[in-house]
Structure formats: structure tokens, C-alpha cells
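A.,

Following up on our hallway conversation. C-alpha cells first:
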């Protein structure tokens, strides 16, 4: 399955993105520990472990969430068609991600030092919501590019060789 050059390039890009997110996570944890002593004094170390676990889960979620769009984008590109894909699903997800990301941004504190800490705190969820929103724009572009007029669609459905739902093992 990794025979395709574009698929290999995608995998390399994905590894770079995941590595970059891990570096950002480490930087966030270091900066957070430095800023934490000046903003809030805490003496309970278990709270820090719980928070760190939350950040790790947030970044893992971000990676999976961003990765969820690539198989559909690639499949649409491969087939040069969005047939069988529900645009309403992507439109509603876009609206949800937009409002979720905006809710995080609009809750930002007014003071500059707290804004930086707030952004670092919410970075995985901001990247997840706005990143997926960005990828859904590409799905929208695919819907526009691959749109077939109604009379042409009927003839293409009969000519489709590959079924829309194929298990990955047989593909």
C-alpha cells in the first residue's frame, strides 16, 4: 500500500507534523512550569500530573482529529469524485469546529501575560478545531471541483468500477 510516491510523501509529512506537535507539547510544558510559579502557586503535584495527562490527551486527540480528514481527501482525489460523501456532514463539522474554536478565542483573558498562558493551555484544541476546519475547506473545494451535472452523474454511476465502500484489506 505504500507503493505510491504521493502516499509515501503524505506519511513523511504526517510524521513531521506529529513530531512538530510533540515539540510544541514539550515547549508548552516547559513554559507552563515557568509561568505557573508567577501566576498561581500550587503545592499539589498530583494536579500537575492530571493536567499534563490532559494536555497529552489533547495533543493525541488533535493528531487523530487532523488525521481523520486525510483518508477522505485522498480517496476523493484518487477517484476525482465526491460521490457517496455527505457534504452536510462536512458542513456541520465545519460550523461546529468554527464555533468551538471561536469560543476558545473569545474566552481569552484581557491581560497579556495571561493570554499567552491561555493560548498555550488551549493550543491542542485550537489546532484541532481550526486545523480540521482548514482541511474541511479542502473537502469543500473537492466538492466544487468534482461536481457533476445531474444528467452526467447518472451515466457515471453505472460506469463506476470500484464500490464506494471497500474494506481496506481488499483495496
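Then the amino acids I'd put at each of the 171 positions:
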Amino acid at each position: 500500500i505504500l507503493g505510491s510516491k504521493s502516499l509515501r510523501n503524505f506519511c513523511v509529512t504526517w510524521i513531521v507534523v506529529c513530531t512538530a506537535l510533540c515539540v510544541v507539547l514539550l515547549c508548552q510544558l516547559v513554559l507552563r512550569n515557568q509561568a505557573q510559579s508567577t501566576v498561581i502557586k500550587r503545592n499539589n503535584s498530583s494536579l500537575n500530573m492530571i493536567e499534563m495527562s490532559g494536555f497529552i490527551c489533547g495533543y493525541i486527540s488533535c493528531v487523530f482529529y487532523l488525521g481523520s480528514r486525510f483518508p477522505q481527501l485522498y480517496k476523493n482525489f484518487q477517484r476525482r469524485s465526491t460521490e457517496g460523501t455527505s457534504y452536510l456532514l462536512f458542513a456541520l463539522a465545519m460550523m461546529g469546529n468554527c464555533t468551538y474554536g471561536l469560543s476558545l478565542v473569545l474566552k481569552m483573558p484581557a491581560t497579556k501575560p495571561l493570554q499567552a498562558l491561555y493560548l498555550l493551555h488551549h493550543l491542542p484544541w485550537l489546532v484541532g478545531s481550526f486545523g480540521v476546519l482548514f482541511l474541511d475547506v479542502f473537502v469543500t473545494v473537492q466538492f466544487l471541483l468534482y461536481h457533476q451535472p445531474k444528467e452526467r452523474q447518472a451515466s457515471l454511476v453505472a460506469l463506476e468500477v470500484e464500490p464506494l465502500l471497500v474494506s481496506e484489506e481488499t483495496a
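Residues 1-162 form one domain. Curious whether your intuition agrees with the design.

B.
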